[in-house]
TrEMBL record:
Source organism (scientific name): Methylobacter tundripaludum (strain ATCC BAA-1195 / DSM 17260 / SV96)
Domain of life: Bacteria
Gene3D superfamilies: Nucleic acid-binding proteins, Ribosome hibernation promotion factor-like
Database matches in Pfam families: CSD (PF00313), Ribosomal_S30AE (PF02482)
One Gene Ontology molecular-function label: DNA binding
Coiled coil region boundaries: none
InterPro entries: CSD (IPR011129), CSP_DNA-bd (IPR002059), NA-bd_OB-fold (IPR012340), RHF-like (IPR036567), RHF/RaiA (IPR003489)
UniProt-recorded name of the protein: Cold-shock DNA-binding protein
Alphabetically ordered keywords of this record: DNA-binding
Amino acid sequence: MQIPLQITFHGIPHSDAVEAKIREKAGKLDRFHSHIMGCRVAVEAEHHHHHQGNQYHIRIDITTPRKELVISREHHDKKAHEDIYVAIRDAFNAATRQLEDYARIQQGKVKTHDLQSTGTVSRMLPEKDHGFIEAEDGHEIYFHRNSVTGSGFDALQVGDEIRYVEETDDLGPQASIVYP
């Protein structure tokens, strides 16, 4: 990485052990894409759950010469993310998948137009920075604000037809790129 790794903590005190785990995981990202310029990691504790322990949210921003990849998923329903190390592992696993996919596209091993599907925006949750797409076959796909290209997330409305690139992880289908 050309720019040193940046780690920030929100809602929790700094932890040398957590920082060491993040540095270890971030150090391995170069294996999956050789031109990573920088990486920023934000660790956040969500303290509004009274019926269960704190959920940890990990956001990773990876900068490459042509694209910035953002790994940021809400895990409110995933009890495992009450363990900060599980949340870190899952976030870096998602980052690895996105880097591998991006590297394949850059190397021409994947035709991007073959990956695109069409659907309709079915729900928008702007206060949570995400929404959902209804695919042509009727299943629902999550998308995050940072996945939207062009005129952006704020211009989308329920009922808009869009194109998207879908991927599936352990939490289900999500759109990694949304074209309004």
